[in-house]
Structures are given as structure tokens and as C-alpha cells.
Amino acid sequence: MTEIDAKIDALVPDWLYLPDIAELLDVEVTRVRQLVKEGQLIAVRRGENRALQVPAAFIKDGRVVKGLAGTLTLLRDDGFSDEEMLEWLFTADDTLPGTPAEALAENRGTEVKRRAQALAV
């Protein structure tokens, strides 16, 4: 396990495999792979078998958390890697309060996007 893997594991409490996400979203696993490919979800290889997994916090009430895709696009445009995006999304921000991932799940995406845009300055 690399240092960044360990850091992300410490930050992200729960993970889901792609077939589990497909079941939660009521879509085929190929659609979940497409969401990852399109940058609407982040999947990283984890565990002994290095299977793709997505933070469970990105799925709520049978859908991808509102505002996640736009936030990921902003962060990607700022030059963030997937690992850096996960670190940013799951690191507590006292001004939110909570983590950006929690704020997105609580429908406070505007605040999260504002902070993501500020990173580009």
C-alpha cells in the first residue's frame, strides 16, 4: 500500500464495489463504468485484488450525490488527480463545516463548488 493509499483509506470510511453501485443505482455495471470513465464518479483500485471501488458517500438514495460530477470537473480542471480529489473531498473543512463530501450529501453543493473554484486562483 502506498502512502497516498493509506491516507485515502484513513479519510474515506466506506467503499463500494462497482456491482454494488450498479445495484444501488438500478443500472448495469457497464453504466457505472461509464460514469467513472466520464468523470462523474471516482473509482480507485483497492484491496488485495485491486478491484475498483468508489467511496460509499458518493451514492445516496439510489443516485449519485447531487453536485458531485460538477465538483469533480472543477477539481480536475484545477489539475487534481483522482487521489487528490478524494483527499480534498474527505478532509474536514471548518468553514463548511464537515467535509466537502458530507456537504454534497447534505445538498450544500453550491458552497462546495465555491471552494473548489477558489482553489484555481
TrEMBL record:
Entry keywords, A to Z: DNA-binding
Q: Which residues form the DNA-binding protein Rv2175c wHTH domain?
A: 4-59
- A Pfam family annotated for this chain is Rv2175c_C
- Tell whether GTP-binding is among the UniProt keywords: no
The protein's name: Rv2175c family DNA-binding protein
Signal peptide position in this chain? none
InterPro entries according to UniProt:
Rv2175c_C, Rv2175c_wHTH
Q: Which GO-annotated molecular functions does the record name?
A: DNA binding
Q: Does the keyword Disulfide bond apply?
A: no
Species, as recorded:
Streptomyces pyxinae
